[in-house]
Amino acid sequence: MLEMLKQPWPWYVAGVIIGLIVPALLILGNKHFGISANLRHACAACFPADIKFFKYDWKKEIWNFFFVAGIIAGAIIAARLIANPNPIVVNPTLASELAGFGITDNSNMLPEELFSWRSLFSLRGLVMLIGGGFLVGFGARYAGGCTSGHAIMGLSDLQWPSLIATIMFMAGGFIMANLILPIILRL
Amino acid sequence: MNTVKETISVQPLSAQVDKDVIDFEVRSLDTMCVNESHKVHPWWYNFKYMPVGILFGIVFVKAEIVSWYRIQEMFRLQNFHMYGVIGTAVVIGIISVWLIKKFNLKTIHGEKIEFHPKKFNKGQIYGGLLFGLGWAITGACPGPLFAQIGTGSLVIAIVVLSAIAGTWTYGYFRERLPH
Q1: Span between the terminal Cα atoms of chain A, in Å
Q2: Is B130–A49 a contact, with Cβ atoms under 8 angstroms apart?
Q3: How many Å apart are CA A38 and CA B31, to the nearest integer?
């Protein structure tokens, strides 16, 4: 049993559990699944700077901080107690493409060459960590939600603006991964 | 004299209601989680959301949704995994929401479960595209970012801080951006 839990879980198990988070949050307290709102609540709580967008009673949304604290705790549990002892299996085409950029360490979820304190002090790492994070935060709020709020919660409620947002998420991802990222990885 | 007194005593109440309405409107701008629980609970009631988060965090890690490689494979059409995860989650979500509406299910505190229609604006196009660009760089949307920190990649805290900075910058320029 434990050996089975340690293996990577198949997509249908993950998909069912993530899908059930939608009714779980609604039934627990009328909450809509959405993670990126936390980034906004953090702004509202720490540096609202008199910006109207951040002037609201963020304390009414602290349930989401508890939810995110749970995500971090869950990740710690999974990484300490039921971690997969083997390296991540990477599609051979992707692996050889990445090897061309000197990225070969697939012992962790994130390639060490890109996501480490050392890489933060290289141009490539700086662009990816700071630039990537900035785009995620800016884009999610501009779009009015991220993958959880639009692609999962919004689509579950059959909201067509969420479908447009989801299509644009995918379009941006395809453009970045196939056209722009190869240039960044060469830095 | 009496009427004056009345207006004075009524005003604070209506001002409070106005403030709540405005507060709700501001919060509902571009954010999904505006469902108001009209019941007031002590803060520690929020601990009930933690087990849901823990389960979510475990699934994120165990199904490798937090892996940069899985996201790269998704955007290169090299692996069905992420399409399977998101597709299944959406199907389960649609069935769940449909059941909640059909049977008019209540929360565990007996409240009616509410849904708010999303309004279309151009932000979903421009913002969505920018978010997608970032997603393919970091290999993580906001949920997995937090989970990555939990797996021990502490440097991802920098990515989260940058995402908060991005959110703040959006708020700052909001009025001047096309919506």
Answers
A1: 45
A2: no
A3: 10
Residue that is written with structure tokens 């501009």 in the block: A142
Interface test with B, best of A138, A160, A178 (most B CBs within 10 A): A138
Residue pair B121/B179 in contact (Cβ under 8 Å)? The answer is yes
Beta carbons of A173 and B135 less than 8 Å apart: yes
Rounded CA-CA distance B26/A57 in Å is 9
A39/B167 Cα distance (integer angstroms):
7
Chosen for mutation from A76, A77, A122, A141 (greatest number of chain B CBs closer than 10 Å) is A141
What is B22-54 written as a DSSP string? HHHHHHHTT-S--PPP-S---GGGGGGHHHHHH
- What is the reported pTM? 0.90
Rounded to the nearest 10 degrees, what angle do helices B49-62 and A11-29 cross at? 170
d(CA A171, CA A169): 6
User: Could you report the per-residue pLDDT of B47-89, keeping only the tens digit for each?
Assistant: 999 999 999 999 999 999 999 999 999 999 999 999 999 999 9
- Cα Rg of chain A (Å, integer): 19
The ipTM assigned to this model is 0.96
Number of Cβ within 10 Å of residue B38's Cβ equals 9
Q: Decide if A12 touches B, using CB distance below 8 A.
A: yes
